[in-house]
Amino acid sequence: MITLSLSEAFAYDLLAIADIKSLRNPGNAQAAQICTDLDDEIARQVGLLKHTEVLHSEEYSALRLVNDEMYIRIDELKARGERMGDAMYIDSRVHKRFLAKQALQQRGFPAEPLKEQKMGYGEGKA
User: Fold this and answer.
1) How distant, in Å, are the alpha carbons of 9, 77, 80 from that of 55?
2) Where do the domains of the chain lie?
3) CB neighbours of 35 closer than 8 A, spacing ≥ 6?
C-alpha cells in the first residue's frame, strides 16, 4: 500500500464511490471490505466526530448522489449496448461531482484547498 496526500473532499469522493459499489454489489465481500477500510482510514485521519459530521452533511449527500447518478446512467447505457451513449450527461455529472467536492471541502475543511483541478468548464455548465 501507499499513502497519498489528498484533499479531504477527494477522500470522501472515493468513499462515496466505494459505498455505491458496495451497495450495488451486495454479495461482493471485497467491495464491502474496501469501503469499510476506507471509511475507517478516513475516520482515523480526520477524527470520528468530524467524520460523522461530514457523512451527515448536505454536501456529502450531494457528492454521493451525483456519483450514484453517474453509475445509474452508465449501467443504463451498458444495458442498451451503447459505448459512448449520453456523453454530455456523464460529462456534466463529472463536473457536478467536482463542484460537490469543492463545496464539501470548503464547508468541512476550509483551511485546506481542494487538491484537484478541472479544465474546460465554463459557467453554466453543470
Assistant:
1) 11, 30, 34
2) 8-108
3) 15, 18, 19, 21, 22
Residue 21 near residue 126, CB atoms below 8 Å: no
CA atoms of 24 and 50, how far apart (whole Å) = 27
Closest to 103 measured CA to CA, from 58, 48, 39: 58
CA distance 78 to 95: 21
Triad 85, 91, 97: Cα angle to 5°: 135
| pLDDT tens track for 29-83 | 988 998 999 999 999 999 999 999 999 999 999 999 999 998 888 778 777 776 6
Q: What is the pTM of this model?
A: 0.76
Q: How far apart are CA 59 and CA 26, in angstroms?
A: 25
- pLDDT tens, residue by residue, 70-114: 888 877 877 777 666 567 777 788 888 889 989 999 999 998 877
